[in-house]
């Protein structure tokens, strides 16, 4: 079975080197070349003895777990990469341009998703499997290798899948991304977004130092159940209690995502109810006009309804933004990720 080196910590690579009869520092060299120099081929790591590289190849270790299957670039400079795993699944990652000229990279944590949120195309696919730590980290490494002009400043776990249903791999990947020997990303540059897996919120808070975002999408339990089936398992009241307990550093805010859907959660009374719901949480609200996808009957609200909703929140001193949708022309916008070649994905 092929194994991928990019998901192993520096310590694990040292242990691996020792187990293959090499000096442990060779493991550290390997880590440095994978994550600082971004080597995606073992052959490219010339500093390692050829005999060590051969032993790794003989044991079916590889430097990178993903191959590029498709690249699409939007008119707004958003880049969507379709990536193929070693066992033939397709996942997607998106490079999103920011106003500063830098990029945010949206990465996937699972192949498909079991949660079936009505606002999201990934949810129509069901869950195939969790991604490994290597497959999470390699989305970033492949993008760095192939798109060096897109300087990534922030990583958001908002692609395919529910990260808190794959905490071990997410935490291992975050640890590699934050390692001083790796990309050395600061905690405020990594955001993990959940649909509201309540026990996972507490666990993530203990195991990783990251920013938290939550797809709220509703001001009350009834609407949340309609849009997010997970609300039946973890009611809104329990979710809000978990958010209050999140270890929020001073001067930081939780991000609450609110996808506005015409006629369901976009009315002025919903905005007022939302203000009351979040009154005890230090947060900012991202309003995201619904991005339609094939097969959904949901619609985005008219511009006036979006603006009215925004104005009600603003007048109550809620920190709120309307998120610009990027990459809509290449199905790369929020909620639209489903595998570039959807038919192949579904056939697996
Ligand atoms: S929004 Fe997130 S949790 Fe919900 S179905 Fe889509 S990928 Fe899964």
Describe the 3D structure.
- Helix content is 33%, strand content 21%.
- The chain folds into 2 domains: 60 residues, DNA polymerase, domain 1, CATH 1.10.150; 282 residues, Alpha-Beta Barrel (TIM Barrel).
- The strands form 3 sheets. The protein has a 10-stranded mixed sheet with strand order 3-4-5-6-9-10-11-12-13-14, covered by helices on one side. A two-stranded parallel ribbon has the order 1-2. Strands 7-8 form a two-stranded antiparallel ribbon.
- The protein is elongated, with a radius of gyration of 21 Å.
- Helix 6 packs parallel to helix 9.
- The chain is α/β, with parallel strands linked by helices and 348 residues long.
- The C terminus is likely disordered.
- The structure holds iron/sulfur cluster.
- The site of iron/sulfur cluster (SF4) has 12 residues, from loops.
Short descriptors:
single chain, 348 residues, alpha/beta, DNA polymerase, domain 1, TIM Barrel, 12 helices, 14 strands, binds iron/sulfur cluster
The succession of helices and strands, N to C, reads: EHHHEEEEEEEHEHEHEHHHEHEHEH
The ligands bound in this entry are:
iron/sulfur cluster
Shape: elongated
Low-confidence stretches: 340-348
Helix content: 25-40%
**CATH superfamily placement of the largest domain:** Aldolase class I
Question: What proportion of the residues form beta strands (DSSP E)?
Answer: 15-25%
**The top level CATH class name of the largest domain:** Alpha Beta
**What is the overall number of helices?**
12
CATH architecture of the largest domain: Alpha-Beta Barrel
* Total number of distinct structural domains: 2
Mean pLDDT across every amino acid position: 93
Q: How many distinct beta strands?
A: 14
Cα end-to-end separation? 19 Å
């Amino acid at each position: 079975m092929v194994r991928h080196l990019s998901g192993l910590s520096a310590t694990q690579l040292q242990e691996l080197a020792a187990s293959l009869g090499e000096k442990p520092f060779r493991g550290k060299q390997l880590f440095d070349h994978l994550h600082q120099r971004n080597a995606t081929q073992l052959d490219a790591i010339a500093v390692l003895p050829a005999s060590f590289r051969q032993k790794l190849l003989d044991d079916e270790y590889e430097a990178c777990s993903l191959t590029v299957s498709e690249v699409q670039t939007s008119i707004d400079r958003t880049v969507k990469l379709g990536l193929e795993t070693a066992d033939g699944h397709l996942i997607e990652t998106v490079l999103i341009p920011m106003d500063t000229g830098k990029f945010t990279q949206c990465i996937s944590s699972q192949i498909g998703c079991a949660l079936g949120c009505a606002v999201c195309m990934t949810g129509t696919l069901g869950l195939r499997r969790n991604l490994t730590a290597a497959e999470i980290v390699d989305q970033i490494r492949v993008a760095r290798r192939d798109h060096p002009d897109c300087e990534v400043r922030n990583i958001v776990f908002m692609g395919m899948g529910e990260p808190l249903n794959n905490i071990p791999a997410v935490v291992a990947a975050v640890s590699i991304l934050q390692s001083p020997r790796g990309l050395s990303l600061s905690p405020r540059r990594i955001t993990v977004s959940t649909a509201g897996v309540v026990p996972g919120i507490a666990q993530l808070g203990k195991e990783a130092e990251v920013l938290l975002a939550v797809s709220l999408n509703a001001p009350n339990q009834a609407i949340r159940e309609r849009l997010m089936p997970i609300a039946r398992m973890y009611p809104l009241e329990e979710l809000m209690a978990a958010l209050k307990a999140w270890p929020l550093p001073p001067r930081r805010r939780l991000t609450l995502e609110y996808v506005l859907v015409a006629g369901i959660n976009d009315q002025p009374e919903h905005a007022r109810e939302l203000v009351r719901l979040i009154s005890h949480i230090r947060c900012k609200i991202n309003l995201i006009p619904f991005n339609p996808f094939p097969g959904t009957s949901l619609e985005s609200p008219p511009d006036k309804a979006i603006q009215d909703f925004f104005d009600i929140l603003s007048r109550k001193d809620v920190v709120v933004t309307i998120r610009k949708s990027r990459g809509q022309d290449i199905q790369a916008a929020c909620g639209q990720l489903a595998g570039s070649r959807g038919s192949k994905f579904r056939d697996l």
